Amino acid sequence: MRSYRELFRTPEYTPFFFSFAAQNAALTISGLALATLVYKATESPLLSAVSMFGPQLAQMLGATFFLSGADRLPPRVTLTGINTAFAVCTALLALPGLPVGAIFGIVFLQGLIASLGGGVSGGLLNEILPKNGYLLGRSVFNMASGLMQVTGFATGGALLALLSPRVCLLLAAALYATTALVLRLGLTARPPRAAGRPSIAATWRTNALLWSSRPRRLTYLGMWVPNGLIVGCESLYVSYDSGSAGVLFASAALGMFVGDLTLGRFVPRTLRARLDIPLRLLLATPYLFFVLRPGMPWSAIAVCAASIGYGASLVLQERLMELTPGELAGHALGLRSAGMLSMQGIGAALAGTVAQLTSPATAMTLMAVASVGVTVVLAVLGRQVQGEVPEVQTA
Is cis: bond before 286, omega within 30 of 0? Predict the structure, then answer.
């Protein structure tokens, strides 16, 4: 499957795609509004960064306990319930006079709920599309994510200039509710992909199985760590230049869109498989430029160029699916999503802490240096395990 027309003619793909796009728009608008609200209340780069990316910090905890549900729960009901819960949580964040501690409690709850969503969505996409269409379909989802971030951050920035952060949060809650409705009406009722009830024991067994293969471990780390460190840089946009934060977020999303479009549609598979390391290096190196504290438009150009490197995630997801049994696809993709988002939350907290002690520009530079270092180490380790065949028995 190489054509977008063929892709969107696939039953259920179109409503699933539009629900994903609406969810990402809600996520970007609510994240920017909440970070602005917290920064105005506390003037803390750390708390602002964690408020925006804090749900990710709970992702790995959720993956430790709940991820077996990714293949053992009916996908339509689960995804509808997740988006309904997000609508409620986002509406609660808009309550006036809500203490900062309560805000972070709700943010943590959102992360626990979201830890299941990545696996359910990834596994369902794997079911909806034929095997040769997965990467193209996933690239369109990633492009939609980038486009919705461009639209969401640009719209969020404009809305924040006209409305209060709390009103913006209520608009995001309405988008989540719309997403839940589209999923309920647009998807068919499918049975779970795997037998058995979700349990902590089943989650731990499957996590251990997926982690037992060294090639899979390195693939997971390649998706999680360099990405998370650079998201730490992104979490400082508000404190680096609060007046232009929306432009920087939109520039990052535009770069991600370009990278996913190129990788998913135009780069042949044989070449694509060799691009993950160059793309991960591209993801970090433009942020070294922030040591000079550039203003607009140079900072936006650097951010856009760097974010093309997010295309490495597509290459690594394709590799992960080659290394994983089909019946564990949802769990494997859920672990990938939970680990990546957890590392993004850790990256945001780490970057915010460094910025608190130094400056946002210094913190962004140091995070980029760390990302380059991790990519180089993983590249060396990856060459040592070339040819290893992972264990493929199921849990």
Answer: no
Quote the DSSP letter at residue 309: G
pLDDT of residue 230: 94
Q: What is the pLDDT of residues 269-303, one digit of tens each?
A: 778 888 889 999 999 999 999 999 998 889 999 99
Q: DSSP letter at 391?
A: P
Using alpha carbons, list the distances in angstroms from residue 174 to 77, 112, 116, 383. Answer: 19, 21, 21, 48
* Cα dihedral 175, 103, 81, 187 sign: positive
* C-alpha closest to that of 52 among 221, 175, 169: 169
Give the pTM: 0.69
User: Is 80 exceeded by the pLDDT of residue 105?
Assistant: yes
- Collect contacts of 352-356 with beta carbons under 8 A, ≥24 apart: 352/44, 352/45, 352/46, 352/47, 352/48, 352/49, 352/50, 352/232, 352/235, 352/236, 352/239, 353/46, 355/45, 355/46, 355/49, 355/236, 355/239, 356/44, 356/45, 356/46
Burial label, 286 (beta-carbon count in 10 A; 0-12, 13-18, 19+)? buried
Among the listed residues 305, 275, 316, 276, the one whose alpha carbon sits nearest the alpha carbon of residue 368? 305
Query: How are the residues of the chain apportioned to helix, strand and coil, as percentages rounded to the nearest 5?
Result: 85, 0, 15
Rounded to whole angstroms, the Cα distance separating 320 from 324 reads 6
Give CA–CA dist 180/173, Å, rounded: 11
Element (H, E) at 251: helix 245-261
Are 339 and 220 a contacting pair, CB within 8 Å?
yes
CB atoms within 10 A of CB 211: 12
Q: Residue 322, Cα to own-chain centre: how many angstroms?
A: 21
